[in-house]
Amino acid sequence: MYSRLMNRRSMHGFTLVELMVALFITLLASSAVVSLGITGGRLYKSIYSQQICLRMAKSALEGPHGLNREIRMANSMSVSADGYSVVYTVSGDATARKIALTSTDSDYTTPWNNTLTYTYGANTPIVVAKWLAPQQDGSAFFSTTTGTLQMKARIGDRCPTTAAYQAVDNAYSGPGIQGVEIYTTVSPRNTSE
Question: What is the model's pTM?
């Protein structure tokens, strides 16, 4: 009898309760791994979006035709009445230069269609940065105070309402608000005023 009992225990398998507990633990661990992967993916998209916005901000301010470099060389400047462009000249060169916020759809509140361009004389504008908009809807992008140029902008942070623009936004940053705001003041070094 004892040998029969030992034989039965040695052929012993898993009970239904043991299988259910093991399955539940495996399910918990799998859901934690999947949840971690989804959160990591969203975080990556957000960080990638911030990197793009910071690159655009750096290009707008410090690039080859960036605002800081160009305006510091100016000896005279004027901001347009709408606040979306600044025209200036440089010492020793009478050719007018222009930095302007341009929009393909005339809606400056959504940054996805806006570019910051640099134009030398009658030449074709050079794109300096993309996805810029005034910091507040309806406010000027450029303004001057006592010979100092101010730029108040946001880059890539407004999620447009149309499906086409949301697809672009979601591709880079996910739904919602992502981006950076810029407030900079630049004074010309060579003013003749």
Answer: 0.67
